[in-house]
Amino acid sequence: MVSAQDAVLTGTVADAESKWGLPRAHVFIASSMIGTTTDRDGKFVLEGVPPGAHRLVVTMLGYEPAHIDTLLRAGKQYEFDLHLESIAIELEEIVVNARLARRWQRRLIKFTRLFLGETENSDLTAILNPEVLSFTSRLGKLSATASEPLIIENRALGYQIQYYLKEFFHYGNTIKYDGEPSFTELTPADSLEAERWRVNRQAAFAGSQRHFLLSALAGRVEEEGFEIYRRFSLEPDRSRFVMDSNQLLESGPSPLEKILTFTGVLEIVYTKESEDDNFKQWQRQPDWTRPGPQRSFMELNSGPTAIDESGEVIDPYGVIVYGYYAFERVADKMPKEYRPPDWTHR
Fold first, then answer.
1. β partners of residue 295
2. Strand 77-84 vs strand 305-308: parallel, antiparallel, or unpaired?
3. Is the Cβ–Cβ distance between 11 and 82 less than 8 Å?
4. Which residues, in sequence order, are CB contacts of 175 under 8 Å at separation 6+?
5. DSSP class of residue 313?
6. Distance, CA of 257 to CA of 117 (rounded, Å)
7. What pLDDT was estimated at residue 276?
8. Which residues are within 8 A (CB) of 132 and not within 5 positions of it... i.e. 6 or more apart?
9. Is residue 198 within a helix (H) or strand (E), and if so which, with residue range?
10. pLDDT, averaged in runs of 10, over the chain (346 residues)
11. In the prediction, which pLDDT does 346 show?
12. Could you tell me if 248 and 216 are in contact, meaning their C-beta atoms sit under 8 angstroms apart?
């Protein structure tokens, strides 16, 4: 439903060299379900865009993706003209080599586990076009690129995701990835699947990083079930101190942004849900270990970082997460506009 408070985005997507409009270019708000394609003249209209900080992304096969980071105010109309640079599509020689095929398959299995995650939702999530992926692996470091957007079907939460992978890197205990996801709701097979998706979406939101940051924005950290502590390091035996949630956020450069700021390591405990069995396995905990509350850790990568009204960290590398937030990856992500039915905090 389009609100009078939402913004409207219009514009044209054109070839950078010829200046001709490009039809059927994909135009979308990153991490959301808001998107469209350009008409025969390269023009587009995006309605129902909530106010706040957003990334407008344009992609088209044969062209370099382009984006504009913008701050939208309520009820305003904006116009953007984007010019895409063409890229040469090289046809690689196809070499049938069983050894290379097996190596690629092993790397795909590893990438899928690292990228989608190892939660129960990942069991029902699949990359439908893995053939667009290329891998390099050297000295234990795995990198991945994709020649086209990854098409990811999440039958646990009911979304299809077009993921424009910009970077993926894994080494040791570090996973670093960045990209622009665009969400589309799947059609449930029946009412039972629709109800399962509804329940799973609420469970995925509860305790998530977005839930935590939205709770901080609303001044309801404790009421939503979070406890927060400040630590000097990640070492388990070091002291921790209860932190006042009112000290987490400072005023941002605009009314639609806040600055997340703290020193050391922030420990975030979500008391309303326990760790699941997959997390115990991921942490290599003994089977007899009793599950505790979901516990995550957060560090600021290079000082205070901005978040927008949707609980999105504007800089994709603004925070580093450990624990449960590191365990939950793409298979547990939902559109930035998702809220549980009873969510009324603004």
1. 269
2. unpaired
3. yes
4. 114, 169, 326, 329
5. B
6. 30
7. 86
8. 146, 147, 148, 149, 150
9. helix 191-205
10. 79 96 96 96 95 92 92 91 84 57 93 96 97 92 95 98 96 91 97 97 96 95 96 81 93 88 95 90 79 94 91 88 94 94 72
11. 44
12. yes
Cα–Cα distance for residue pair 150/128, rounded to 1 Å = 8
pTM (2 d.p.): 0.89
The answer to whether the beta carbons of residues 267 and 228 sit under 8 Å apart is yes
Whole-number pLDDT of residue 215: 96
Q: Which of 29, 52, 42 is nearest to 252 (CA)?
A: 52
Instruction: Give kind and range of the element (H or E) at residue 212.
Output: helix 209-218
Asked if residues 121 and 157 have their Cβ atoms less than 8 Å apart, the reply is yes
Please give the structure tokens belonging to residue 53: 């900080």
Phi-psi region of 40 (alpha: psi -120 to 50; beta: other; left: phi over 0): alpha
pLDDT on residue 280:
83
Name the residue among 73, 56, 74, 75 with its Cα closest to residue 65: 56
Pick from 333, 319, 307, 318: which is nearest to 52 by CA?
A: 307
DSSP β-ladder status, 226-231 and 265-274: antiparallel
Specify the pLDDT at position 188: 97
Distances (CA, A) of 207 to 122, 179, 271, 316, 328: 18, 23, 8, 20, 11
